[in-house]
User: Which sequence fits this backbone?
């Protein structure tokens, strides 16, 4: 059977419980949002296997797979036509943020090409914990894995506890990109995933050509569809 994509990226979303990791994936993959909170935790014994097929943009099949490997919960596939020169299929791995699952082993990160660190702009603790997640990546993920910092729920400006400048500073210190996103209003969700995809793609191209520099923000801006101002959803 012919392959339905040109590039396959394995991405991992990490962050405290309730910051919106699942909602970001659902927004990106299905362009949908549900305010009902169902925490992403696998039963220790593993829930019964099930799968759900979704048609996305009439091009890609999305599969939601639950259960199986410990705390791996969901694998969502999505084609990304038009944003990158080639059609790109993302494999997203969403993780549970529960305290009891914080001890993440190398197996958890194995094969991830990009890691998205998510905090909630209305929850200071989730931002403070980004440092712990960074440490966890350093200890467990492959060196040089692309990382991206997201401050989610930016539609909730009135409840903001984490200033954009704080996160910008943290991202600069770690040499990674930062976006404020809203899975609810969809603000910056496509942009964030796409920029990570482009960075992975560029890195793999650069590795082949021996150049390791990152793309400039202006390069990325040429592909941005929406502005980066966050409004109430
Ligand atoms: N206002 C607002 N609410 C959001 C947003 N993203 C997620 N939420 C809400 O936050 C709650 C938690 O979202 P989830 O996506 O389940 O969070 P999670 O990080 O996957 O949580 P765990 O599975 O426990 O790790 C839900 O009630 C969502 O509706 C957002 O961008 N804006």
Assistant:
């Amino acid at each position: 059977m012919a392959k339905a994509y040109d590039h396959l990226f394995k991405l991992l979303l990490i962050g405290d419980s309730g910051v919106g990791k699942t909602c970001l994936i659902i927004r990106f993959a299905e362009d949908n949002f549900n305010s009902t909170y169902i925490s992403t935790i696998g039963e220790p014994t593993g829930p019964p296997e099930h799968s759900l097929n979704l048609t996305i943009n009439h091009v890609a099949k999305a599969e939601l797979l639950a259960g199986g490997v410990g705390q791996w919960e969901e694998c969502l596939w999505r084609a990304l036509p038009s944003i990158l020169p080639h059609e790109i299929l993302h494999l997203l791995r969403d993780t549970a943020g529960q305290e009891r699952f914080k001890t993440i082993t190398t197996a958890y990160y194995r094969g991830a090409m990009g890691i998205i660190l998510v905090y909630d702009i209305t929850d200071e603790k989730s931002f403070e914990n980004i440092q712990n997640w960074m440490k966890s990546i350093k200890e467990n993920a492959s060196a040089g894995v692309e990382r991206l910092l997201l401050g989610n729920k930016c539609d909730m400006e009135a409840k903001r506890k984490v200033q954009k400048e704080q996160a910008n500073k943290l991202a600069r210190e770690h040499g990674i990109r930062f976006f404020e996103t809203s899975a609810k209003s969809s603000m910056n969700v496509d942009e964030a995933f796409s920029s990570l995809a482009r960075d992975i793609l560029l890195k793999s191209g650069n590795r082949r050509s021996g150049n390791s520099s990152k793309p400039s923000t202006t390069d990325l801006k040429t592909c941005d569809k929406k502005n980066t101002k966050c409004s109430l959803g």
In short: The longest strand covers residues 7-15.
